[in-house]
Amino acid sequence: MMMKVRQLCQKAILLMLLTSAHPLTYADDATQVVLNMPSSATDVDYAKLRNDYGQRDDFEKICIDKPHTQEMVIAMNTQQFDQLITLTNDWVNQCPVDIQGHLFRGTAFLRTGQKDKAIEQYKWVGGLMKSILASGDGKTSDTAFVTISVPEEYQVLSMMRLRLVKQELIMKPLRDKLDTLDQSGVEHIIYFNPAAHFDRLAKQLNVKKPE
Fold first, then answer.
1. pTM of the complete model
2. Pairing assessment for the beta strands 175-181 and 163-170 based on DSSP bridges
3. Cα–Cα distance between 86 and 98 in angstroms, integer?
4. Are the C-beta atoms of residues 146 and 135 closer than 8 Å to each other?
5. 3-state secondary structure of 72
6. Positive or negative, the Cα torsion across 177, 134, 118, 98?
7. Residue 150 region, left (φ>0) first, then alpha (ψ -120 to 50), else beta?
8. Mutual orientation of helices 66-77 and 99-111 as an angle, nearest 10°?
9. For position 96, what pLDDT does the model report?
């Protein structure tokens, strides 16, 4: 039986941290903090924060800096955790809505023995992910997960441990349809509505966004 998309999300918010690629000493503690975090655990309104950043004209400049994010990935893969802490410090302040940035920073803190700081970053990961899950169920174009960028879509897939097979832009309504496979080889079709991305693109091109 195909696992429901929401169940995939709920079970996988920190599954990425528990795999052999990112083994963590305090993984169980971090998982419990994030998955069981009540909405009152922080004053941050993650949905509003994501929306506010998504509507910024300079979003691509401050949140989609490929050279910098590639540096973070290299530091993560080579386990240069002190360097990763340095790289993510300015990054999460500059773009606090980046799931990967908080995830990497949390991992770096955990691997350098700074458990409390790691858990704070995992709270951000959980809060950002949960704000996306609350926007829909991803099963249809009408109930698509609302995201603020295409990279955010890929971060959600990564957290869900899904591998992208095919991506298609569909019209009326304007949505991204992603064909994916889970780790057992089961197919899942996930719909995303990167509304803020389409708004920024239409503004840059000075055209009306398709309905």
1. 0.79
2. antiparallel
3. 16
4. yes
5. helix
6. positive
7. alpha
8. 30
9. 94
User: Given CA atoms 70, 118, 92, 42 in this order, what sign does their dihedral have?
Assistant: positive
Residues in the chain: 211
Q: How many helices (H) and strands (E) does the chain have?
A: 11, 4
What does the pLDDT look like over 98-143, one tens digit per residue?
A: 998 998 999 899 889 998 888 889 889 888 988 998 999 999 999 9
Token reading at 134: 């609350």
Contacts of 86-91 with CB under 8 Å at 24 or more apart are 91/65
Q: If you search the block for the tokens 């690629």, which residue do you land on?
A: 21
Bridging pattern class, strands 163-170 and 145-146: unpaired
Report how far apart, in Å, the C-alpha atoms of 68 and of each of 103, 112, 154, 158 are.
15, 22, 17, 19
Let me know the angle formed at the C-alpha of 76 by 97 and 113, rounded to the nearest 5 degrees. 90
Tell me how many degrees the CA angle 67-73-79 measures, rounded to the nearest 5.
Answer: 135
Report the distance separating Cα 184 and Cα 162, nearest Å.
10
Q: Are 84 and 108 in contact (CB under 8 A)?
A: yes
